[in-house]
């Protein structure tokens, strides 16, 4: 799964962000390879090849680390390679949820409240999750937000520019993010929005030579959705699905 070169880059990052217990994890490389294999193939945990170690060890490690925010920290660490903030891009996508994604523990509240907490909901596209990403100028993911499938992308996009390590020159997004208040928020950050107006809105400045680069973030989603666990949500909890997104994005950073 992982070449020696890839593991040489990944191992110190994982060691830096993983929780420090009384005993170090056994066969960390094999466990990471099992986690990557499962999410790239979208298989059941029990289908993890035996040569990658016990399936339950990989499952427990991934889920526990997802709850502790390890995968988000891993994504933050790979960004120390250098974020390109000349242009940043916002884009969202709908992720259909597999039937096995339902059934998370309720922890109080109704079924609707549980689905909202776990970022699951029904839209015209079916049962799923809405995921929104902000990417740097080279099309590498900086941060994610997730919401139930019926939710609009804009409310979750508003906090994303605040997660950047600096001030970008441009924030580029499609018409789905067209909002006067959102443009004002971007201007307040000393950045410039490149978001075209909707057909029922007054025209706004959106330089074509900037907006034409928006395909960069669309290509990012295409790469991330090569992971079957990103293209289809199998995870029951929002924290585990966020872990899948951040892990896939971190590996994408290491490849680019």
Kindly list the characteristics that best describe this protein.
alpha/beta, seven-stranded mixed beta sheet, 7 strands, 41% helix, globular, plasmid, Tnp_DDE_dom
Question: Can you give a write-up of this model?
Answer:
By secondary structure, the protein is α/β, with parallel strands linked by helices. It is 41% helix and 16% strand. It is built from 11 helices and 7 strands. Strands 1, 2, 3, 4, 5, 6 and 7 form a 7-stranded mixed sheet that branches. Strand 3 and strand 4 form a beta hairpin. The longest helix has 18 residues, at 238-255. The protein is globular and about 60 Å long. The mean pLDDT is 91.
Helices and strands, with pairings:
Blueprint: H1 4-17, H2 28-41, H3 55-67, H4 70-78, E1 87-97, H5 111-117, E2 121-123, E3 126-135, E4 141-148, H6 154-157, E5 170-172, H7 180-188, E6 192-194, H8 208-211, H9 215-224, H10 228-231, E7 232-233, H11 238-255
Parallel strand pairs: 1-5, 1-7, 5-6
Antiparallel strand pairs: 1-3, 2-3, 3-4
């Amino acid at each position: 799964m992982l070449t020696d070169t890839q593991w040489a880059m990944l191992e110190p990052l994982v060691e830096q962000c993983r929780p420090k217990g009384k005993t170090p994890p056994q066969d960390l490389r094999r466990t990471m390879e099992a986690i990557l294999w499962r999410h790239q193939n979208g298989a059941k945990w029990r289908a993890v090849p035996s040569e990658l170690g016990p399936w339950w060890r990989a499952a427990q490690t991934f889920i526990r680390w997802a709850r502790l925010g390890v995968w988000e920290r891993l994504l933050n660490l790979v960004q120390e390679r250098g974020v390109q903030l000349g242009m940043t891009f916002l884009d969202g996508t709908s992720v259909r949820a597999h039937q096995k994604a339902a059934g998370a523990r309720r922890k109080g509240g109704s079924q609707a409240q549980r689905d909202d907490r776990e970022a699951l909901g029904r839209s015209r596209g079916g049962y799923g999750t809405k995921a929104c990403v902000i990417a740097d100028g080279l099309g590498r993911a900086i941060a994610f937000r997730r919401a139930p499938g019926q939710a609009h992308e804009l409310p979750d996009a508003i906090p994303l520019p605040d997660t950047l390590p600096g001030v970008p020159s441009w924030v580029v997004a499609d018409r789905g993010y067209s909002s006067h208040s959102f443009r004002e928020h971007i201007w307040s950050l000393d950045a410039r929005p490149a978001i075209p107006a909707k057909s029922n809105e007054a025209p706004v400045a959106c330089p074509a030579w900037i907006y034409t680069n928006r395909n960069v973030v669309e290509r990012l989603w295409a790469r991330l959705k090569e992971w079957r666990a990103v293209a289809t949500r199998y995870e029951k909890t929002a924290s585990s699905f966020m872990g899948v997104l951040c892990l896939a994005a971190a590996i994408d950073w290491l490849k680019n």
